[in-house]
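Input record (one chain):
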Amino acid sequence: MQPQDVAPRPAPPSTPSADPVVDVEQAEAALVEHYPRLARLAYLVLPPGLGRGRRVLTAHALTQRALPRGRTTTPVIPAQSTGQEVDPGYALVRLRVVRTALEAGRPLRRRAWPTRAQLPPLLPHVRGLKLFPRSGGADELALDQRLSALSGPARAAYALRGLEGLSEDGVRQVLRAAGAEDVDGALREAGAMPDAYALLGSPEFDPCSLQARPTDLMRRRQHTKAALVAGAALVVCGALLGLPGDGWGPDGAAAPAYAQNPAAQAALDPGRLTKVAPTAWETSARTDFSVWPARGDRTGDEELLRRALAVWARPGESVGVSATPGTATGGPAGPPQLLYAGDVDNARVVILHDGLRLVRYAEPKDGTAGAALDLARTDGADRAGATAVVLGRADGNVRYLTAPWVTKAAGRDLGGPDAGARELALTDGVTAPLASPVQQQSGACASWNVLELTDGADTRVVSDLGELVPARLTTGRPGSVRDASGPEALRSWAPYACSLGAVRGQGVRSVNAWEFAKQPLPDSTGSGAWVCTRAETWRGDGARVLAQFRTPGGTQGAVAAKAQSVPACGERDPHVLAGVLWKSAGGHWYLLAAGSRGTESIEATGGISDSADGNLLTAKAEQGARAELKGTLEGGRTIGGLR
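The corresponding structure, as predicted from the sequence alone:
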């Protein structure tokens, strides 16, 4: 029997005679935890006629205003189509988001005051910039056009069914509670749409992953011209009266704003690019990106290199720009290092390195329209972290540029460790195409392709997580991890391979999987395995930790607890405590909790009250019960359950 894991977290028990009451704290926790999901839902329901920029700001405004002012009853808690329960706090804020998004799409009426949702949002607001989601592919564009032809309630029905996984009855309950008109008609209208639910999770509909462009510069100039003329006299007079001698001001001895910087100018000269010798890495004290040679058949194409440098310094409005979290997007401070310039599938690609960041510029072979710029932070990279860079993705495949010390490359399914590896051809460090797990449909993960690289006697395994640098996969106790290569390590990772999808686009440097406990299950059903996966980032903070539980015979682990930006399960604090509600084959419910080595006792309080010596706790429970966990370590220090 699989552990019962629900996201959002399971609802607490409630009496059938009254609607559950949600505290502000519970609603806030649900809103903060699932903010990106709620903002995406609002963005999908809002009318496309608002424009992508205003839809983004309105989606964020409506999501933030979904927090109630006090204790509030939840009029409807629809079950997921899987039959799992939903946290009342999440059900409440989701309903409020849908209700206000539908209100925002209703036309203004004469002799009636508009609602707050029908007015442009006061906050959030970004002056002088247009914000809009990253563009998707042709399928996403076609889906957006079909959604724009639907009514507001029909868009809400489609989003609730596809994004939230609600059944038809659940969608009907939410729409009625949100005040939608003609709910049955909306369901029929949404049902006539093609089943493209997997596309709803794409960046095309993500208001939390944005691009920024300036607004109409000519109009802004005209609007501010009069104010500038009037203020200029005051500034000049104040400067003359207040600056004695050589003057003192906020810029001090700085040159005028329009002065040319020699280093910045040199950074845009393709003739000054640094090109490392092919054998430099063999004698260098460093083995990272700084000793990669320049490769590719266009390293002498100065026009291409000049365009790449110019776009890096000042990307135009038509350029798609992306950066991993914590990565500066400004131009190079001086001449960068060239790692690659050549043709990759249907694009011309340039890879540059400035000591702190990797930058990929890509443009179509038949022109520059649709050029893309990707930046990733790589400071502190070592030999293990500088093994490969993503050259390009096309037709669901990914190609890599490997380090000069890599002698062999292969692809394998991390979820099927016994299937063996498939060797990939290496041509001047470029791999043959490998199916990328980034293109997999959400909710249907059956495999996870990874890249296996041979570096002398060492073998490393890395995974594409939708970014410029693949993440290194390791196993073992924090502080003594090793690469996830070899039969034993691969079998350890296999049940948790699909959980890598939870850390896509987070700037992940490495992910470690560590089995911290085995727990005998009640009713003589064998032992369950507790595994902690920790994703470390290049920026140092924002690490994501998942505690997963797998029952005997289970093909995949289930997430029992998760946390972000905590030291648990890491080298600085190799301790973790987690629990899960589990239903045995005999139909009995139990709280199972486990701590890592060094846990002397575990105590459960709240909806379940029990304790046990050692690092394992098994307590009888009721369905939907919730408990607080506390573990006591050797030496007396206490830790809480991961959450």
